[in-house]
Amino acid sequence: MITEPTSFSAESYFATQPPPPTLEHDVERVTEWVQKQVAAGRRVVLVTSGGTTVPLELNVVRFLDNFSAGTRGATSAEYFLKAGYAVIFMHRQFSLQPFSRHYSHSTNPFLDFLEIEPSNDSSDSTPRISVTPEKRADLREVLTVYKAVQAAGTLFTLSFVTVNDYLWLLRAVSQELSVLRRKALYYLAAAVSDFFLPRQKLSVHKIQSGKGSLSIEMDQVPKILKPMVDEWTRDGYIVSFKLETDPELLIPKARIALERYGHQVVIGNDLHRRKFEVVFVSRNPDHQTNGDTEFTENWLKIDPALTHPGIEQIKEIEEDIIRELVKKHTAWIAVSPTST
Ligand code: PMT
Question: Suppose 177 and one of 184, 207, 229, 264 were both cysteines; which one would form an S-S bond, judging by CB atoms 3.0 to 4.6 Å apart?
Answer without folding.
Answer: 184
